[in-house]
Amino acid sequence: MIGFIGSVFSPYYAWANAKAPANPENHCAMNIVLYQPRGGRWAMTERRADKLSRSGQHLQIGNSVMRWENGQLIAEIDEISVPVPRRIRGRLTLTPLAIHTTQFPLDGAARHRWQPIAPIARVDVEFQNPKIFWRGNAYFDSNDGDAPLTSDFIRWHWSRANDHMATTIFYNTKRRDGTCLVLGLQAKAGGQLENVALPPEQPLPDTVWRVARSAHSDAGYKPMVLKTLEDAPFYNRAIIRTQAGGKIYNAVHESLDLDRFDKPWVKLLLPFRMPRI
């Protein structure tokens, strides 16, 4: 689940910005994805500013809302999936083990910032449409910025592996100024957020759309893709298996190619997955 204000992957926002600086609040979306063995559901409907309500404690876009309540992040979801229109309605309750306030600049001018707010947490998921219930480990972070991602980045990859005791995050960006940023962090259940050494970067197989992928893994251990969750022309999300510090992890992994996203033909494809109403 992602709440977007000024949706960074919105073709409508990109087209509006090409003419004049656009109001980010006029390009909002609540992205919710349910992965199931059969019949997963996806929603990312973009809405205008009159469908947005927000404060320091809540974010509502359309009929869906996230809010802080008694130290928990509660999300009430009410969306319609695409491309097959089916209702997605349910509730998430995320309980952080610790809250972190440190922001990490991702570019040299600090125009883009990332904050791992609750990198180790628990979540209860209960949906009426479709009928599912589960609980498990969770992760919650935030990104904000003052410029389009395509202005400052060529590509990046990111991974997150967690268990009951710790979450390990690797962040690797290739910037337009020719520099790179690599971050290795570990959040522990006791609240500590520590730097960790990054293992070497090693290739993963390209995606169906030929998006290049790589992951950090100990020398001598070849990382592998266990399951592809999303495969778009510029973006990929997958479950991978890798090794760091001698420990084998299953991790959520994302690859983003911003040169590809900037192609006009890619933006023309996106409204099929990201309608605007």
Textual characterization of the structure:
The chain is mainly beta and 277 residues long. Strands 5, 6, 7, 8, 9, 10, 11 and 12 form an 8-stranded antiparallel sheet that branches. The radius of gyration is 18 Å and the shape is globular. It has 4 helices and 21 strands. The model has no long low-confidence stretch (mean pLDDT 96). A hairpin with a 3-residue loop joins strand 19 and strand 20 (235-244). It has helices at 11-19, 149-152, 258-261, 264-269, and strands spanning 2-5, 28-34, 41-43, 46-47, 52-54, 58-61, 64-69, 72-80, 87-96, 104-105, 112-129, 132-145, 153-162, 166-175, 180-188, 193-195, 201-204, 213-216, 224-231, 235-244, 247-257.
The assembly state of the depicted protein chains is: single chain
Strand segment count = 21
Query: Could you say how many structural domains there are in total?
Result: 1
Largest beta-sheet details: 8 strands, antiparallel
So what's the overall shape? globular
- Tell me the structural class: mainly beta
Distance between the termini: 20 Å
Using only CA atoms, what is the Rg?
18 Å
Averaging pLDDT over every residue, what do you get? 96
Taking pLDDT < 50 over at least 5 consecutive residues as the criterion, the unreliable ranges are none
DSSP helix fraction: under 10%
Strand content: over 45%
- Pattern of helices and strands: EHEEEEEEEEEEEHEEEEEEEEEHH
Helix count, DSSP H or I runs of 4 or more residues: 4
